[in-house]
Amino acid sequence: MVPISYYLILAAALFCLGMFGVLIRRNALVVFMCVELMLNAANLTFLAFAKQNGHLTGHVSAFFVIAVAAAEASIGLAIVIAVFRSRGTVSIEEIRTMKH
Amino acid sequence: MDLKQFLLQLRLDPSALWLIIALPLLGAFLCGVFGRMLGRANVYLVACAAVAGSFLLSLSAFLSVSPLEAAQAVTMENAFSSGTIRYAFGYDFGTWFSAGTFRVNFGLMVDHLSGTLLLVITGVGFLIHLYSTSYMSHDDGYWRYFAYLNLFVAAMLTLVLADNLVLLFVGWEGVGMASYLLIGFWYSDTAKAWAGRKAFVTNRIGDFAFLIATFLIVLLVSAFNTQATAANFSMVGGNPEAAQVRYREGLQMKGPVAFQGLETMANALHVTPEKAQGGVNLQTPISEGPLEGRTFGGVLTVALLLFLLGAAGKSAQFPLYVWLPDAMAGPTPVSALIHAATMVTAGVYLFSRMSYLLVLSPTAMVTVAIIGTITSLLAALIAFAQDDIKKVLAYSTVSQLGIMFMGVGMGIFWAAVLHLVTHAFFKACLFLGAGSVMHGNADETDIKKLGGVRHEMKQTWFTFLVATLAITGIVPLSGFFSKDAIYHGIHHNHLHGYEWASSVIYYMGLLIAASTAFYMSRVYLLTFEGKRSPEAKIPHAHESDWRMTTPLWVLAILSVVALFQALPLMPGRGGVMQPVMENFLGPVFSSAERIAARGGEVKLDHSVPSIIDYLKAWLVALAGGAAAGFMYLKFFPSRAGQPAPAFARSVRRFTQNKFYVDEAYEFLVIRPVKNVSAILYKLVDTLLIDTVAVRGTAWVTARLGSALRYVQTGDAQAYAAVMALALLGGAVYALILVMK
């Protein structure tokens, strides 16, 4: 059986990948994909612990995260499309109007 | 069925006593809330009917406590002792409020003292309501006026009917409020609104003293209850132990401020340690509580002096009399009812009600008498030079109230109450006469600009003359007898330790009587006699209508008839004939008499004035009147056109400006208070609260906000970076914890 630390290191690596993607990429669509990556890293952690402890709670949480991710993706994509229609771009650098 | 039979059958059930108060209260409500809707005539009807109904109920209550046949005398159970209270009845409507052992009941009581006052309040009150229907016939605020007037009557009746200090205080405050509302009745005139405010504030000072005095009495009663022994109650009657138990039950049932309880306590308090046999006496120190270490007598004296300050506020005595002359800003019938006949006598009523406490403290008594003398003399002197007819009458009221206080202070309670009654008649008559004169002369109040009104206002003239003679003290009018009864009592009563007071105050009293005769004759002569002044507003005066003259006639007749109350017609102790009023009020003041006789602190005399005394008083009054007649009929007219000597003018100016008492108060009290308030306002309100606390908070928030605003760049990735850094920080912190 694979030790739990491997799962956790994998999850941490995935999370960091996602996070750096969110911080660096300019395309809003790619930023969303990176967010999905972070969420799945969290899922992996949940499942790893659930397997180790023999609890169902972790599985349940993972399902919740998937449901929330689906909702988030649908709303986020709708926003991206709306922004594209009004501004003709999906670059985050171009949409900085909500400021002081 | 003849009249006597009918009167004998008139009985008011004690449980219906509340109706006497409720009727005018209902009238006030109807007039005040629905007055505009009801219209003028209906408001008149409601207001007058309410007071008339109250008068009939009062009459029936009065007849119940003073039956025409002795066999039918009512008695009332005393909650505090096994004895009964004769010639009184009352009803306890239950607890009003209670906290711990303290409780106040809503109890009403009628005895001969409150019965007399009931008749005066509702009787004179009704006449003045009737008068007002004509006097206020051109005023648009009629509904407000009658609502206030009814409210006043209700409050005054509460004051008189209350069987405990706290309920009395409700009436006390109620009359103060009604008085404030009526003085400032024409509130659009700033000076009149200010006069109302002055009256209210001055009264509040007195009311504060009244409250403190009540608290002291509560503490005193509880200390007495803990420390008193059976020896104390040997004088209350019956078995001492049983009497003490009964007293404690009374305290539980009716609370410490009930008058019956105070009376029992006064009866049980020994004056000197020699006679006390271990019981509590006036020199016993209080053993516990906030008053620990102070003697019973000392606390009682302080409480009575505070009551004196309270009474000085309400009854316009020195040093709080200054509001009454300004109160003439209200409509004239109001001055007649509130500021002459009823409300201002509340202080005299209070001390008569608590006569049994007063006689325990000669110091308090002599202070009351001295304050009365100072007030009376001061006001009489100021009245010399006033030209406003209402102002003269106002100062005369202050002066007459001072005479009543002299009487109360020297222990001649019945005469003070008699003077209260006769004064209510003739002073109300004078004020209403003055109102009638104003009404017929286009609201002219300056007596220098009147004159010769006699021929055009015959009814007003005659009634005013009768009332003037009554207040001046001319035989055979009531004022002569009541005032002389007071003076005789002052001269013959003695306060232990203050023997000098009797003669000093008596001779001051004669001086006051002469002054009264002088200024009242002056007002009468300048207004009614002589030729009409060329400065008059209208060339001819007109007589007022029947609604104004009827009350004048009734009051004039009453101020003559009331003299019978001072005549020695009733058989008293030892077969000596007593004045009617003294005999009538005997049951009310019996405790005071008993305590005075037992303790030797106060010697109360019961002799009847001799012919010589009467003659002396009469000569004094005549001299004052004759001096005024000489000055204003002969001396001044003959010197018309010549300037008066300089000293006379300066004296006159000094007197006309009321001895600058208002200015002195302004300088000594009002200005310092205002300055301290201004400093506090600048320091605490403006600086600390407004600037630092309120505006300071807003300023800090605004500055902080405008500085932090620049963090909001609109770059989502920058926000995410901050979150990532925070996460990193959290992770590092967790690592450090784990490593440890």
- The arrangement of helices and strands of chain A along the chain is HHH
Structural class of chain B: mainly alpha
Largest interface: A-B, 11 and 11 residues
Helix content of chain A: over 70%
Structural class of chain A, by secondary structure, is: mainly alpha
Number of domains of chain B: 3
Radius of gyration of chain A: 17 Å
pLDDT < 50 stretches of chain A: none
Total of DSSP H or I helical runs spanning 4+ residues of chain A: 3
> What best-fitting shape of chain A do the alpha-carbon axes yield?
elongated
Number of helices of chain B: 28
Hey, roughly how much beta strand do the residues of chain B contain? 5-15%
What is the domain tally of chain A?
1
List how many beta strands of chain B DSSP finds.
8
Number of strands of chain A: 0
Query: Any idea of the CATH topology of chain A?
Result: Helix Hairpins
The gist of it:
The complex is a heterodimer of chains A (about 100) and B (about 750). With about 100 residues, chain A is an all-alpha fold.
Topology (elements, then pairings):
The complex is a heterodimer of chains A (100) and B (740).
Chain A: H1 4-24, H2 28-53, H3 57-87
Chain B: H1 3-9, H2 18-38, H3 40-65, E1 75-77, E2 84-86, E3 89-99, E4 102-110, H4 112-135, H5 142-161, H6 165-183, H7 190-227, H8 240-254, H9 259-268, H10 273-276, H11 296-314, H12 323-326, H13 332-341, H14 346-353, H15 355-358, H16 362-383, H17 389-409, H18 413-440, H19 458-472, H20 478-492, E5 494-495, H21 499-528, H22 546-561, E6 568-571, E7 577-579, H23 580-585, H24 590-599, E8 602-603, H25 611-638, H26 646-656, H27 661-708, H28 716-739
Antiparallel strand pairs in B: 1-2, 3-4, 5-8, 6-7
